[in-house]
């Protein structure tokens, strides 16, 4: 059978070492080895977006990323992003606007939305919808999510100029 | 839906990668972006004995502007192509494909070469490469060879690659600076595979017509489609040539059906896209 | 005292954010798959690849030898688990074969569990699955709704006689006379596609059997914990008291998770057999073939209408194609029965003739999903109304105004039987046309048509069943509770704990109970916390379904909290040597009612009650109160509303782009406007899906062809437009809080509104579509272009 591989990587800012089976994808690895709850699967074929997290600062589908591929990389889950405070305003906006109902899609939504927050540009609703079209939500009908992101983008871009 | 077990290797050179592939033959898969391979493996539709991870092969990266040729490493991510100044300036048709391809988290990992080697009939990159007369640079046990795009896409998930070969680079000829391009795609949802799509480029001629017309379709047949008769009809007739171009398309294409659309529907939609693409090429303000 | 007059912070009626949401946005939710127990193992089910086949042999030897495998079980190993079938005694003639939790000799749908591997990890279990050898002898398959009852079609379960699960006819008024008097008799056939809920969190359960105590704890993603307790105890042969059901965070349910599933039940049985916790999580592919499907209907409708737009009569034949067994315990027939009860009854009709046929097939199991039956009923009726309007050349709003039950005509007994307490159809229509700027949209439509841009406006007037009494299930012998219970406790420090039989799946149930309790007692909402989803601890309740959480659960909360307030005031009066009537609780402090002067804190009351009762003569404080509530006057509380859709059709490609939705809903007292509005928006997405995109596509062999998220198309941000929501409020008198239900209305009205908007857009071409989902191909065919 397949032998395990040694990997060294950063998880939410902390260096970790692990021995992983090649077939273990990043979500299963993070859930079973580190008992992190926010990485989760919704489909395991890359469509629903619930598994979206950050590797080397870029969003990826955790269910389509093998744990062995994390070697030498920087992995961030919502636990880490939340602790850093990077998305505090977006998380507040989600609560205020009720953009999280059952919450299952929420970590993937937040981490995907965070990409739009970079660069301090304002984005209109069309662009927000376009960027998030790879994250399925079955509870909200999406409008609250778009509202929450739009409001934070506006705050951030106006905050910069004032 | 957990993948079956497999061995894993991460070669440091192309030669090593080829050797591994040769040793394991049909039981090995190359791992590039993994955005198509890993879903299939998670569903146990594909159970390779070994995965050969290409992601350490530095020579497969990079976008190079060599003047009359743009060289794109096979491992170049879709997102990278979308951000590249070189691509935006020199191959705008490619740049226009990016927004249609899946979603951001897929584009960050999916590769240009991976998409071409998979040859999904509904994918954008194969059609764009066909339209631009790309040359596929392929490495194999007996060295490198070049396969022109028009010979590369053979059928449903079928290319001219031999089992022990690896697509390493794609060379695209520089395009006229004043060329206009358009990529149109019809899908029921944002980011879905195309029901029908068109990648088109042309140079506006002084008489208000179009020259050097390049038109490739995707999603309508078992492979991307480019027909000289279609392009000639547009070159000679402009908007008035669209009907003739449609007739040429109907005569020259084996339209396929999918889960939701009959071949006749695809034929109709291809014709609609053709008209819209030509209109845009003729009226482009940018 | 009404909720509106309640003291305290005045939370009811305000868009208070959900305290639970904080946990969700920080990634600290706890779903069943996050539960890890010592010695826990994983169950993975082998599912039938055939829709109908005899199992001739199963060999599990090679599978059991695989690494990490504890054991492999087949159907025969579950002989101690009772079979089940959802048959409602008050549905005359309803029948179903009994279903085993795993197939034994025969499989009846593609996806039915045949064997189960229990292993240390899910990966190992799936590896072993590949090693199980099953021989099948294929049997003829029943998949065609039209021929399911034909004599030539095989009967799936010969011992029940035929493939009819339930049929019902209703004839009221003189239908033939109405047809005679009509100027036009409109006839149409509608097709609604089989589809499913697609909860992002797959169905999940951990069965945890403790052999020494002989107790089973079930951690499950579900909407009705007490129902699970009752059913599982019965089916597993345990006393009710031996089963504890815990529901923590649920990642979406929408009715999919209100049923008993054989695989989840078997997982608990496995825990009993193995003496250790067993976890089962349905992955996405198996969810498509094992979650209940819904709404697979062919409706042939007839409407008699005059030139003045008066609808004289509505008649229809509705056939729905369910799975091979009636799902347990709610059954597969409630959908059809509701359609029989409600169709068109929001109009004043002279005659009504309904026939429903619920037929068994070898497609997947089928039962209640959000808005049960209403999307089909409202869909075809509103489609007929628009067809009638087009026929006589009348505006669709005008024809509805001429037929909707007048707002002052309540209570109103519908021709089909149900009693409507109070509705506001006309006020809702006034409000929605105002919100839409209806005249302006029509003018714009005309102008754009000149430019070859085709937009359409569609309406759906609707009713929605909520707050059900025991008439729903109880009278049919089904042990699903229509009552609900709430316990409210004041702790020594003065904080309030609310324990409730209804739970939370994201709709905000816990929040509205906190709002109600805070207002009822007079305390800040931050001092109120909720405990739900644990049958060991919470009062016996019905759970969330049929939009009952607010109306029924909310009333129980109000009653309990008011009673606690009374007890607190009695205690405070005793301590301060005054009369309870002289006191009030405001902002968590007991004050003098007349002057507002602070008299005593709740914490001080608590200290004395719990730790210094020696200072209280002849007085026993009761600082925990339980109240139960069930609607008694009206068997069901019907709400009303109207939904409108604005869309654009590309007549060259057939692609449809929804531009905007409006919904004006009357759900009585609105407890939290934001939460209600968000339920409407989410509900609309579930209605839009099957109208344009979603469909469970079966081939003639009973195979599901599109059982993945690549091919089964749920709406994304790109497809769902913004929605404007408005409210009219006619509170119900059944309860003090006056709240009706609101969770399903958005789903009920959307298919009809979208279909009407599409046909409105295509009116210049005299093209009409009634076969959902409306794919580009169907639009092009209707236009004669492909």
Q: Can you offer a commentary on this structure?
A:
The complex is a heterotrimer of chains A (162), B (286) and C (786). Chain A has 162 residues and is an alpha+beta fold. Chain A folds into 2 domains: 5-77, Beta-grasp domain (Ubiquitin-like (UB roll), Roll), CATH 3.10.20.30; 85-158, DNA polymerase, domain 1 (Orthogonal Bundle). Chain A has helices at 26-34, 78-84, 88-97, 106-117, 125-131, 143-161; strands at 5-11, 14-20, 52-55, 58-61, 74-76. In chain A, a hairpin with a 2-residue loop joins strand 1 (5-11) and strand 2. In chain A, helix 3 packs across helix 6. The N and C termini of chain A lie far apart (61 Å). The model of chain A has no long low-confidence stretch (mean pLDDT 95). Chain B is an alpha+beta fold. Chain B folds into 3 domains: 7-53, 2-Layer Sandwich (Uridine Diphospho-n-acetylenolpyruvylglucosamine Reductase, domain 2); 63-173, Uridine Diphospho-n-acetylenolpyruvylglucosamine Reductase, domain 3, CATH 3.30.465; 182-282, Enolase-like, domain 1 (2-Layer Sandwich). Chain B is built from 12 helices and 13 strands. Chain B has helices spanning 14-24, 37-42, 78-83, 85-90, 92-97, 104-107, 112-118, 124-131, 149-152, 228-237, 242-252, 263-283, and strands at 7-9, 28-31, 50-53, 63-65, 69-73, 135-140, 143-148, 153-155, 158-159, 166-173, 180-186, 196-204, 210-218. In chain B, a hairpin with a 2-residue loop joins strand 8 (153-155) and strand 9 (158-159). The radius of gyration of chain B is 19 Å and the shape is globular. Chain B starts with 6 loop residues before the first strand and ends with a helix. Chain C has 3 domains: 3-29 and 483-629, Aldehyde Oxidoreductase, domain 4, CATH 3.30.365.10; 32-139 and 203-250 and 257-290, Alpha-Beta Complex (Aldehyde Oxidoreductase, domain 3), CATH 3.90.1170.50; 293-470 and 633-782, Aldehyde Oxidoreductase, domain 4. In chain C, the strands form 8 sheets. A 7-stranded mixed beta sheet of chain C has the order 3-5-1-13-10-11-12. Chain C has a 5-stranded mixed beta sheet with strand order 7-17-16-15-8. In chain C, 63% of the residues are buried. At the A-C interface, helix 2, helix 3, helix 4, helix 5 and helix 6 of A face helix 1 and helix 16 of C.
């Amino acid at each position: 059978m397949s032998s395990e591989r040694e990997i060294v990587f950063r998880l939410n800012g902390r260096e970790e070492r692990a021995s992983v089976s090649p077939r273990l994808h990043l979500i299963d690895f993070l859930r079973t080895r580190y008992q992190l709850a926010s990485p989760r699967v919704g489909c395991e074929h890359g469509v629903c977006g619930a598994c979206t997290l950050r590797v080397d600062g870029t969003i990826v589908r955790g269910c389509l990323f093998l744990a062995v591929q994390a070697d030498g990389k920087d992995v961030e889950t919502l636990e880490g992003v939340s602790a850093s405070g990077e998305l505090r305003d977006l998380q507040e906006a989600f609560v205020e606007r009720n953009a999280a109902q059952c919450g299952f899609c929420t970590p993937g939504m937040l981490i995907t939305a965070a990409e739009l927050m970079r660069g301090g540009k304002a984005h209109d609703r069309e662009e927000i919808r376009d960027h998030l079209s790879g994250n399925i939500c079955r509870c909200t009908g999406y409008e609250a999510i778009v509202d929450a992101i739009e409001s934070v983008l506006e705050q951030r871009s106006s905050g910069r100029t004032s | 839906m957990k993948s079956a077990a497999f061995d894993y290797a991460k070669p440091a050179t192309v030669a090593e990668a080829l050797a591994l592939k040769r040793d394991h033959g049909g039981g090995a898969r190359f791992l590039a972006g993994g955005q198509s391979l890993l879903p299939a493996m998670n569903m146990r539709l594909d159970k390779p004995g070994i995965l050969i991870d290409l992601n350490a092969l530095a020579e497969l990266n990079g976008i190079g502007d060599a003047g009359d040729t743009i060289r794109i490493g096979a491992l170049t991510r879709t997102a990278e192509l979308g951000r590249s100044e070189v691509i935006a300036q020199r191959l705008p048709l490619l740049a226009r494909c990016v927004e249609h391809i899946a979603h951001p988290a897929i584009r960050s990992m999916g590769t240009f070469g991976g998409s071409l080697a998979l040859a999904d009939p509904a994918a954008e990159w194969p059609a764009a490469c066909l339209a631009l007369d790309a040359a596929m640079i392929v490495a194999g046990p007996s060295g490198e060879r070049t396969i022109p795009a028009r010979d590369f896409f053979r059928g449903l998930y079928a290319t001219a690659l031999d089992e022990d070969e690896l697509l390493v680079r794609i060379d695209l000829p520089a395009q006229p600076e004043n060329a206009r391009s358009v990529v149109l795609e019809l899908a029921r949802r944002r980011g879905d595979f195309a029901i029908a799509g068109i990648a088109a480029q042309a140079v506006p001629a002084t008489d208000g017509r179009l020259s050097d017309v390049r038109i490739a379709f995707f999603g309508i047949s078992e492979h991307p489609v480019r027909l000289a008769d279609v392009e000639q009809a547009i070159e000679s007739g402009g908007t008035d040539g669209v009907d003739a171009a449609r007739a040429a398309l109907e005569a020259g294409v084996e339209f396929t059906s999918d889960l939701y659309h009959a071949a006749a529907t695809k034929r109709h939609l291809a014709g609609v896209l053709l008209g819209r693409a030509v209109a845009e090429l003729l009226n482009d303000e940018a | 005292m009404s909720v509106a007059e309640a003291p305290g912070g005045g939370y009811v009626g305000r868009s208070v954010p959900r305290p639970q949401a904080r946990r969700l946005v920080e990634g600290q939710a706890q779903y069943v798959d996050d539960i890890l127990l010592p010695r826990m193992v994983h169950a993975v089910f082998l599912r039938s690849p055939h829709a109908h086949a005899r199992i001739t042999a199963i060999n599990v030897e090679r599978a059991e030898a695989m690494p990490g495998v504890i054991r492999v079980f087949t159907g025969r190993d579950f002989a101690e688990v009772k079979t089940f079938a959802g048959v409602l005694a008050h549905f005359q003639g309803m029948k179903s074969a009994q279903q085993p939790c795993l197939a034994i000799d025969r499989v009846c749908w593609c996806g039915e569990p045949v064997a189960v591997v229990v292993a240390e990890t899910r990966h190992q279990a799936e590896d072993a699955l590949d090693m199980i050898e099953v021989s099948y002898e294929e049997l003829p398959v029943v998949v065609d709704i039209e021929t399911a009852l034909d004599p030539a079609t095989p009967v799936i379960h010969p011992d029940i006689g035929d493939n009819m699960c339930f049929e019902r006819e209703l004839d009221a008024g003189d239908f033939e006379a109405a047809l005679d008097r009509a100027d036009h008799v409109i006839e149409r056939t509608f097709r609604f596609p089989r589809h499913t809920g697609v909860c992002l969190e797959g169905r999940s359960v951990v069965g945890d059997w403790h052999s020494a105590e002989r107790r089973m704890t079930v951690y499950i993603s579900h909407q009705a914990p007490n129902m699970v307790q009752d059913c599982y105890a019965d089916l597993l042969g345990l006393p009710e008291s031996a089963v504890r059901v815990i529901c923590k965070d649920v990642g979406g349910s929408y009715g999919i998770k209100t049923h008993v599933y054989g695989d989840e039940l078997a997982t608990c049985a496995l825990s009993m057999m193995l003496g250790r916790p067993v976890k089962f999580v349905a992955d996405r592919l198996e969810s498509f073939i094992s979650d209940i499907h819904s709404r697979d209907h062919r409706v042939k409708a007839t409407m008699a209408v005059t030139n003045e737009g008066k609808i004289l009569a509505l008649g229809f034949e509705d056939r729905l194609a369910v799975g091979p067994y009636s799902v347990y315990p709610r059954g597969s027939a409630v959908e059809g029965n509701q359609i029989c009860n409600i169709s068109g009854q929001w109009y004043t009709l002279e005659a009504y003739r309904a026939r429903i046929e619920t037929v068994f097939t070898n497609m997947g199991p089928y039962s209640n999903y959000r808005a049960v039956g209403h999307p089909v009923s409202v869909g075809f009726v509103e489609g007929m109304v628009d067809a009638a309007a087009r026929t006589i050349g009348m505006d669709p709003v005008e024809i509805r105004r001429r037929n909707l039950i007048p707002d002052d005509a309540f209570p109103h007994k519908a021709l089909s039987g149900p009693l409507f307490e109070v509705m506001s159809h006309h006020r809702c229509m006034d409000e929605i046309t105002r919100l839409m700027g209806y005249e302006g949209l029509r003018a714009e439509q005309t102008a754009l048509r000149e430019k070859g841009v085709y937009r359409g406006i569609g309406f759906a007037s609707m009713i929605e069943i909520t707050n059900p009494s025991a008439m729903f299930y109880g009278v049919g012998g089904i042990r699903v509770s229509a009552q609900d219970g709430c316990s409210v406790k004041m702790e020594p420090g003065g904080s309030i704990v609310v324990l409730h039989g209804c739970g939370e799946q994201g709709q905000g149930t816990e929040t509205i109970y906190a709002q109600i309790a805070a207002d009822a007692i007079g305390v800040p909402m931050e001092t109120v916390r909720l405990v739900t989803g644990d049958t060991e601890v919470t009062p016996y309740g019905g759970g969330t379904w049929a939009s009952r959480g607010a109306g029924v659960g909310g009333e129980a909360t109000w009653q309990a909290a008011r009673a606690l307030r009374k007890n607190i005031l009695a205690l405070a009066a005793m301590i301060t040597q005054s009369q309870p009537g002289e006191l009030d609780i405001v902002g968590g402090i007991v004050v003098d009612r007349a002057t507002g002067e602070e008299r005593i804190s709740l914490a001080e009351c608590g200290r004395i009650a719990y730790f210094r009762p020696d200072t209280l003569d002849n007085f026993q404080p009761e600082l925990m109160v339980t109240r139960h509530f069930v609607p008694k006057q009206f068997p069901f509380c019907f709400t009303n509303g109207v939904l409108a859709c604005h869309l654009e059709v590309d007549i060259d490609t057939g692609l449809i782009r929804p531009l905007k939705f409006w919904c004006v809903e009357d759900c009585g007292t609105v407890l939290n406007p934001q939460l209600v509005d968000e339920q409407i928006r989410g509900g609309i997405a579930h209605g839009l899906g099957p109208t344009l995109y979603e469909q469970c596509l079966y081939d003639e062999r009973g195979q599901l062809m599109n059982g993945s998220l690549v091919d089964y198309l749920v709406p994304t941000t790109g497809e769902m437009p913004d929605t404007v929501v408005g409210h009219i409020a006619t509170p119900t008198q059944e309860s003090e809080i006056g709240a009706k239900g609101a969770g399903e209305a958005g789903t009920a009205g959307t298919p009809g509104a979208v279909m009407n908007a599409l046909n409105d857009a295509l009116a210049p071409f005299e093209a009409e579509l009634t076969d959902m989902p409306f794919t580009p191909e169907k639009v092009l065919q209707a236009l004669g272009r492909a």
